[in-house]
Structure prediction request, 958 residues.
Amino acid sequence: MTTSALLTDLYQLTMLAGYHARQMHEQPAVFDLYFREPPYRGSYAVFAGLQPALDYLSQLQFQTEDLTYLASLELFEDSFLSWLSGFRFTGRVLAPAEGTPVFPHTPLLSVEGKLAEVQLVETALLNIINFQTLVATKAARLCQAAGQASVVEFGLRRAQGPDGALSVARAAAVGGVGATSNLLAGRTFGLPVKGTQAHSWIMAFDNELEAFRAYAQCFPASCVLLVDTYDTLKSGVPNAIKVAQELREKGFELLGVRIDSGDLAWISRKARQMFDDAGFPQVKILASNDLDEELIDAIRHDGGRVDIYGVGTRLATCAGEGGGALGGVYKLVEINGRPTLKATSDPAKASLPGRKSLYRVQDRQGRALFDLIALRGEQIDCGDKVFDPGNPARNQIIPAGSQLVDRRHLVFASGIYCEEAEPLDVMSRRCREQLVRLPEGSLRLVNPHRYKVSISQGLLQLRQRLLAAIEEQNLGTEI
Amino acid sequence: MTTSALLTDLYQLTMLAGYHARQMHEQPAVFDLYFREPPYRGSYAVFAGLQPALDYLSQLQFQTEDLTYLASLELFEDSFLSWLSGFRFTGRVLAPAEGTPVFPHTPLLSVEGKLAEVQLVETALLNIINFQTLVATKAARLCQAAGQASVVEFGLRRAQGPDGALSVARAAAVGGVGATSNLLAGRTFGLPVKGTQAHSWIMAFDNELEAFRAYAQCFPASCVLLVDTYDTLKSGVPNAIKVAQELREKGFELLGVRIDSGDLAWISRKARQMFDDAGFPQVKILASNDLDEELIDAIRHDGGRVDIYGVGTRLATCAGEGGGALGGVYKLVEINGRPTLKATSDPAKASLPGRKSLYRVQDRQGRALFDLIALRGEQIDCGDKVFDPGNPARNQIIPAGSQLVDRRHLVFASGIYCEEAEPLDVMSRRCREQLVRLPEGSLRLVNPHRYKVSISQGLLQLRQRLLAAIEEQNLGTEI
Prediction:
């Protein structure tokens, strides 16, 4: 899928026109993409969306119809539109690998290049990374809640349009959700597709048993029955058991049943018992109906016997406190070799200026201790003092024997990818493996341990110097 | 944009294969699309998404690559795939016009045709109508909160992928949001596009005044300045006043300023005073930063002087209590001429069976009294008793002199549209005009008057008869 070059905010184009008119458009500049709060009141986010973001950068160009539209706005000079017709993204991108757990204030993408090109791509990069990271994080939380059970994505009907649904399926896979109901996503990303039947199937027949038999006849080897159209335990499960017996006589086994309403913990336990008693322990129980990580956790806590959780609405819409949107931002951190920052009323919340490196500080067993943001090229050693960016009076020492692992690498340069595209299952494995290496309590769904992010001495000093300069300038304005 | 025929849940295809195998696929069937709870804890939703839904229906067909993919799943017979290759949607669709305020349990789309075709389109119709209706409703709430001020959509960077953002811009326009920052949406839907500059523009210059002057030089006739990069009232507004003076000397007027942080009520009031005192009463104040209808309402209540509200994240993600997703469902209500319903543990919540008409009951002044759902063709007169579907013991009389306005019409039949596509501004005018005719208190943002929806005697009796039959059948199963 090619993303249109017009998929951007008007202000990107007015700024570009301004830079072009003043001959600033080729000044070297660096932007950092980061977020300030982890979603869902958790401790982490799962980085996702890099590949689609790089696809966008590699394909970015203005078509004739785009330029005709821009000319029709009567805002832009012909010389600017002519320059835009030859526009390509030729910059460099540093990023973590998809599936990596990431934390507030740490630079995810750093985009380096000519001012015009690194500015223009802001909106689309945020659109792609914000949403996919948000979904991957939700998916990781769901999988964590589900424990040994698996999670399937059913969100197409509640997603934001066709493409939103595709992004959901892809990012959910990065976060560990193994299959989708969305056929287009299945084809596009090579994901396993799952599905059974709707209540309308059951209602299209004279009665439930007839509907079950009809389905089993068509799909004897992959039969999952929806058992809650009339009464799950009085009608649905007994009828499913009849069909399981009939299938077995023909040499097939009923795969499972889906329960889409009621008290899922209690009903799944009863249904499990009924299938086991009838000699069908292989029948899997799939539960759906507005599921979320908290509800899955509660069902397991209450002794529910669910093998597969189907999650739709709340995954596709990233529902939950602190969900809905990842507040990712894209900030200029250097221009013409001069580091910059965006001040705020609270100096501790000012952005982190300059080109930076992002390290994960690990102990000898490979367990993550904290993340460290340092200036690019700054020498960092064990024993160095590092600082809480929100409150520099709080500091700590990098423990002896720690490893500093650079979390990012060059992924795009000169218009091409620096690495081969990774399969989604490599990303989801990375996610799973790295999440368990976080400090104890970091994965708790509610009120987790807050993973520490520190800044280096060099970065702290640079920020303080720039804040002092702004303060002086503001005072100057006042006089 | 053509929507792939694969944009559906796998279960639609397995059900279709089953219907096809049993030669049920051409049985006449009717589905209703409706929702159960109004979003955002309001009283209404604004119906939107019809045109894109009809575009989908008119274009729906399986391409060779789609069929190849389906064959690779090893679930489907060749005879079914061969039938699928000739599939077209030939059914009929009844719907309200976009921009119409609609209410819980009332049928929005009714889709009538052969069982296979009306079943297959479920997922895509829900995807399109659910999301656009949710956004249009949010937009209407925002416009209502803004009063005389206008609202602009800035949500591209937080939307669910490129297409999600396009849907947002379109549906926001239906709900009354007059402009967007999204250039692609501007071109696609002919919407006005708006935008100024980012903080990065300001930071790319040595100081704020220089950045303002550079922008004003490029866009003297359409200059809006972002004034909060350093200190809004000490630096941003004084510098904007300097530039306004310089523009005036050249024969131009500064259009406005944007404030993106801080206490927007207080700062906008102070900024208004500063511009007025300096002789620039024409300068408009645009506010942004995580705005929502509640916040806009609070800013106005606190004496804020904002002319334009820029809303991004919370519009694009439909944030808010009861937001995030419209729980629209698509239920089989008739098959082979036999009305059907989906029972639940609470009989009052059972779906409404059969082919139905939806009326708005209005008084002589055209004010809406309540909505009435009746059987198609059922004779309804003033003086008739009508019933609360959740509690039929509660009933009321259709007042003498009321008008019954049929809320829906035939919009699609035999593969083609029955009406010309409407411009978005016709829809948004309809929305505005019909919202003010709702009963007093219906538009309150918080805890509004709940608009009544009633069912006719005929519909009530049909539902009771079907529920009794299911009850009997369940008892039968138990024995």
Summary: The mean pLDDT of chain A is 94. The first strand of chain A starts at residue 28 and ends at 34. Chain A touches chain B through 110 residues (CB under 8 Å). The CA atoms of residues 217 and 247 of chain A lie 9 Å apart.
